[in-house]
C-alpha cells in the first residue's frame, strides 16, 4: 500500500468517525425526549440526563390520547396537509411546466416576482390575511387556511419543479407529439412520470411544512377543536400541562412518527428530486 493510499484511507476514516459522532450528538435530544415520554413522573429538569427510563410506563401516551383531543388535532393537520398538497402541487405542476417549456412575454419577470414574494416573512402578511379571512367568513375554517397554505407553497413548488422540468430532454416530448399525443397526454403520460422524483419530494415537503406550521394555524384557528398538532402542542406546554413534560414529549413523538414514516418511504427519491432541480434555473 502506497503512502498516498494510506493517507486517503486515514482521511476518509477520520471523516466517517466525525460524521458518526455528529449524528450521535444530534440524536441525544431525540433520545432524551423519547426517554421522558416513557418515564413515570413529570420532572424534566429536576432529574439528571438519562437516555433510558428509570421506571417504564405508557401512561403518558395513554393520557395524551384520552385526556386531550389529540386525535382531533391529528385529523385537522392531516386534512390541511392533504388538501394543501393536492391544490399546491396541482397548480404548480402545470405552472412550472409552462414556465419551463414556453417562452412568453413577462416570463422572467413573473418568476422573479414569485421569488420576491416568497422572500418576505410570513408575519408581514398576518394582519392583512386576518382581515381578509374575517371579511370572507373564513376565519377559524380549514378552507381559509388551505387557501393560505396552498398559495404560499405553490411558489416554492413552482420553482423547485421548474428546475427539474428543465432537465427533461425536449426531444422526448417532440417524439410524443409526432406520435399524436395531445398537450394533456404529453403532460400526464410522458412528463409527469419522468418528473416523478421531483413531484414526490416537493409534495412531501409541502406536506411537512403544513404539518409543522405554527404561526398561521394558531392565529386563524380560534377553537380548541380546530387546532392543528402544532397549536395543540403549544397548548399542552402553556396551559395546565406545563409541568407534564412526559406527556408533552409523548405528544411530540406521536407528531413526528408520520413524518418519519413518509420520509423513509420516499428517501430513494430525495437525492434526485432535490439535486436535479438545481441543475438549471
From TrEMBL:
<feature type="domain" description="ABC transmembrane type-1">
    <location>
        <begin position="74"/>
        <end position="266"/>
    </location>
</feature>
<protein>
    <submittedName>
        <fullName>Putative sugar ABC transporter, permease protein</fullName>
    </submittedName>
</protein>
<keyword id="KW-0762">Sugar transport</keyword>
<keyword id="KW-0472">Membrane</keyword>
<feature type="transmembrane region" description="Helical">
    <location>
        <begin position="73"/>
        <end position="99"/>
    </location>
</feature>
<dbReference type="InterPro" id="IPR035906">
    <property type="entry name" value="MetI-like_sf"/>
</dbReference>
<feature type="transmembrane region" description="Helical">
    <location>
        <begin position="186"/>
        <end position="211"/>
    </location>
</feature>
<dbReference type="Pfam" id="PF00528">
    <property type="entry name" value="BPD_transp_1"/>
</dbReference>
<feature type="transmembrane region" description="Helical">
    <location>
        <begin position="245"/>
        <end position="266"/>
    </location>
</feature>
<keyword id="KW-1133">Transmembrane helix</keyword>
<feature type="transmembrane region" description="Helical">
    <location>
        <begin position="145"/>
        <end position="165"/>
    </location>
</feature>
<dbReference type="InterPro" id="IPR050901">
    <property type="entry name" value="BP-dep_ABC_trans_perm"/>
</dbReference>
<dbReference type="GO" id="GO:0005886">
    <property type="term" value="C:plasma membrane"/>
</dbReference>
<dbReference type="InterPro" id="IPR000515">
    <property type="entry name" value="MetI-like"/>
</dbReference>
<feature type="transmembrane region" description="Helical">
    <location>
        <begin position="12"/>
        <end position="34"/>
    </location>
</feature>
<feature type="transmembrane region" description="Helical">
    <location>
        <begin position="111"/>
        <end position="133"/>
    </location>
</feature>
<keyword id="KW-0813">Transport</keyword>
<keyword id="KW-0812">Transmembrane</keyword>
<comment type="similarity">
    <text>Belongs to the binding-protein-dependent transport system permease family. MalFG subfamily.</text>
</comment>
<keyword id="KW-1003">Cell membrane</keyword>
<dbReference type="GO" id="GO:0055085">
    <property type="term" value="P:transmembrane transport"/>
</dbReference>
Amino acid at each position: 500500500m502506497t503512502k498516498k493510499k494510506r493517507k486517503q484511507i486515514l482521511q476518509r476514516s477520520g471523516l466517517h468517525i466525525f460524521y458518526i459522532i455528529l449524528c450521535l450528538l444530534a440524536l441525544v435530544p431525540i433520545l432524551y425526549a423519547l426517554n421522558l415520554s416513557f418515564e413515570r413522573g413529570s420532572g424534566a429538569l429536576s432529574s439528571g440526563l438519562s437516555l433510558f427510563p428509570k421506571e417504564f410506563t405508557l401512561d403518558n401516551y395513554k393520557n395524551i390520547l384520552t385526556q386531550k383531543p389529540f386525535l382531533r388535532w391529528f385529523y385537522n393537520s392531516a386534512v390541511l396537509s392533504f388538501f394543501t398538497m393536492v391544490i399546491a402541487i396541482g397548480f404548480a405542476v402545470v405552472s412550472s411546466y409552462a414556465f419551463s417549456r414556453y417562452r412568453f412575454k413577462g416570463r422572467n419577470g413573473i418568476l422573479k416576482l414569485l421569488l420576491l414574494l416568497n422572500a418576505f416573512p410570513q408575519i408581514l402578511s398576518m394582519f392583512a390575511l386576518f382581515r381578509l379571512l374575517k371579511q370572507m367568513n373564513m376565519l377559524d375554517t380549514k378552507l381559509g387556511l388551505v387557501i393560505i397554505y396552498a398559495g404560499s407553497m405553490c411558489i416554492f413548488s413552482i420553482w423547485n419543479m421548474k428546475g427539474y422540468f428543465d432537465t427533461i430532454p425536449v426531444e422526448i416530448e417532440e417524439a410524443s407529439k409526432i406520435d399524436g399525443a395531445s398537450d394533456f397526454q404529453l403532460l400526464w403520460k410522458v412528463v409527469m412520470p419522468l418528473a416523478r422524483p421531483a413531484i414526490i419530494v416537493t409534495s412531501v415537503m409541502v406536506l411537512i411544512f403544513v404539518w409543522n406550521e405554527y404561526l398561521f394555524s394558531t392565529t386563524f384557528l380560534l377553537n380548541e377543536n380546530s387546532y392543528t398538532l402544532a397549536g395543540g402542542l403549544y397548548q399542552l406546554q402553556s396551559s395546565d400541562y406545563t409541568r407534564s413534560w412526559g406527556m408533552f414529549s409523548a405528544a411530540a413523538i406521536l407528531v413526528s412518527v408520520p413524518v418519519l414514516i413518509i420520509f423513509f418511504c420516499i428517501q430513494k427519491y430525495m437525492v434526485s428530486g432535490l439535486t436535479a432541480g438545481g441543475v438549471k434555473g
